[in-house]
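Data deposition worksheet. Section B asks for the primary sequence of the deposited chain exactly as it was used as input, without tags or linkers unless they were present during the calculation. Section C holds the resulting structure in token form. Section D is free text for depositor observations; keep each observation to a single sentence. Incomplete worksheets are returned to the depositor.
Section A, Depositor: J.P.
Section B:
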Amino acid sequence: MDFLYTEEQRMLADSLRRLVEQAWTRPRRRAREAAGRLDPAAWNALAELGVLGLNIPQEAGGFGEVPASLLPVHLELGRGLVAEPVIPSAVMGAALIGACDAAARERWLPAIASGEHVVSVAYQEPGRRYQADPNDCRATRDGDGWRLDGAKHLVWHGAAAHAWLVSARADDGATLLLAVPADATGVRVTDTPTLDGARCARLDFDAASLGADALLARGEAADAALAHALQWGTAALCAHAAGAMERLLEITVDYLKTRKQFGQPLAAFQALQHRLAEMLVAKELALSMAYVAVAALTEPEPAQRRRILASAKLETARAGRLVAQMAVQLHGGMGMTDELEVGDYFKRLTVADLLLGDSAEQLAVLEELA
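Section C:
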């Protein structure tokens, strides 16, 4: 896979960086966090730039870009700590629906690409950690439609979604994927802020009534579509984390060049230069793993694709911990305060480790595939 930016990708990355520097300044990010809801202006700005329709086919209102295009976009979003639901909706949701039938694609993808609809993949169940196969969430036939019972938790930006893409177990044991509108009856949403300024939700379904057109996929097709969505989300998350590390390193270098001790900048001390070198190596490793993760999306062998993505996610998390912890340490006591931007990056990199399978989960995948 060629990772040299095309002219279009370079222009998009430059435009996105300018947008993020203007609209995702620290005060604006904090204001959105305090509001606790999706900012329509920020979301529409991303849609107008083409971020939301990047990998959606042209016939569905998107740009039909190849997986490699995830890299420049999500590096920039990570640099700016953009917390809007780009990955859960425009990456994971679009990938899941794109793996379903033509009717589902025609119904949902144009609205996702335009930013009109936000979707979120609801697959995790309480008490089952990162297991993707549904167990307690059950879907049964109800006339021509469906009845949904059970719960999903840790639904990424679940409260902002116009619809949830829910995995459930049918009476015959098959996996079902259902599109559940946010205004469906019998659904209770509990919205919760996350450590990094984003949001997640718990969805409780109590005889939720769905129409016949709610079914997106069934059986092996549903399992494959869900796995496809999680893999695309993992690759985008690796790029996002690498971008956050890149910007955090820049912030730390600037601080050490400015802050003085014993009449000279902290950056002049050899011991601190060694720390910066370690951070740089870790950041470059994370960037390389982001390249590897995006390249894995075109790997035809499923087991090999899972292995590559698990390795990339594991190494990205390790690099993120090192960069974040050293950045806090090099800022001294100020690094522990909420007023300093370094703490925002520390939190984002901490959460990135936990999303879509933490390090223990990635090690378990590698052990399973060994």
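Section D:
The chain is about 50% helix and 15% strand.
The longest helix spans residues 220-258.
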